[in-house]
Amino acid sequence: MKILFIICLLLNFSAFSSSQEFFKFGNISIKMNFNKGVYLSSDCDLMNCEAKKGLEQIGSIKIESEDLAGGKNPFSVKCTKFLKGTVLVGLDQSGNELAFCKFSDGSMFR
Hints:
By secondary structure, the protein is α+β, with helices and mostly antiparallel strands. It has helices at residues 2-15, 50-58, 74-82, and strands at 19-25, 28-35, 38-41, 86-91, 97-102, 108-109.
């Protein structure tokens, strides 16, 4: 019973180990959760969003060299061509630009 309690405690702790950060998109600030090297819309924790589905797919997408013609960014190509998202550039609190993939339900990831 003690082992089960410890496992549950560790699982709950790891669920809250993500951090949150705000990004500015024009005049709008959006809260993003950062966990395991990925930014995900904070509201995705409450719903089954398109960004979660995109995250599950992006690693297995193979792009051809012609998809990158003209110096296109591989993340942008995967987002727009294969995941049917839109690329948005957001600013973090230090003013650094980061590209995000935004979906029709408003969810985003990077």
